[in-house]
Specification:
The protein is α+β, with helices and mostly antiparallel strands. The chain is built from seven helices and nine strands; from the N terminus they run ααββββαβββββαααα. The chain has one domain. The relative contact order is 0.24.
Length: 219
């Protein structure tokens, strides 16, 4: 695995574990998800060059396992900020196949053609009575959960990074359909198991960085 994809996967593992450790995303939500997009971003108020960020997306395969990760970049649209935060972490839970399919395109806008809503909270919350939207979002900024919407955020496949890791003929669609091998040396698969309530390798989880993620930064 290239350093670039490894870095994105490690960051995604750290972000997702943070949400799980704080019991923000119910196990049932992850267990029933068709896919997950995990990323960090920032807004133009902090960086004059414009708003952006990066992350990875994984999809549920027919056998119930997760596809390898596809890397993407983020260009933030007109999202709303409640806490005046410049940097944020986000987990998008993709609840429908159409929501997953959107990430198979080279570029897409969050919320375009797929209804989004803040996801249910709680480590073991009962979601059987919840109105399941195509995409549930979980955000964190300055260490505070919620308060940020990501509608209009532009997601663009990082084709070069994917090609470096999987081969020149690879596409996001092929990766998310499981037509590639999981890269090695990342803790992301173990964190995905943890998020679903499955048995995990404690040693692997212990290797995840405890440094603040972008959504924890105060400035």
């Amino acid at each position: 695995m290239t350093g670039s994809l490894k870095k994105e996967c490690d960051k995604a593992a750290q972000i997702l574990k943070g949400f799980i450790d704080k019991r923000r995303i119910p196990v049932e939500v992850i267990a029933n998800a068709k896919g997950l997009a995990i990323f960090s971003g920032f807004r133009a108020a902090m960086y004059l060059a414009g708003a952006g960020g990066s992350g990875v997306v994984v999809a549920r395969l027919p056998d119930g396992s997760w596809s390898p990760p596809s890397a993407f970049s983020v260009r933030s649209g007109g999202f709303g900020v409640v806490y005046g935060v410049d940097m944020y972490d986000c987990v998008c839970v993709l609840n429908t196949q159409d929501a997953v399919d959107a990430y198979m395109n080279s570029e897409m806008a969050l919320g375009a053609g797929a209804s989004m809503a803040a996801g249910p909270i709680g480590g073991t919350a009962d979601i059987s009575t919840k109105d399941v939207k195509p995409i549930w979002t979980y955000t964190k900024s300055r260490g505070l959960y919620g308060g940020l919407t990501v509608d209009g955020t532009i997601i663009k496949e990082k084709a070069a990074i994917n090609a470096e890791s999987y081969g020149s003929n690879i596409t996001a669609a092929r990766i998310l359909k499981g037509e590639a091998q999981w890269p090695s040396t990342t803790q992301l698969p173990e964190v995905l198991k943890l998020a679903e309530g499955k048995k995990t390798d404690a040693k692997s989880l212990g290797a995840i960085s405890t440094e603040p993620t972008p959504g924890d930064l105060k400035e």
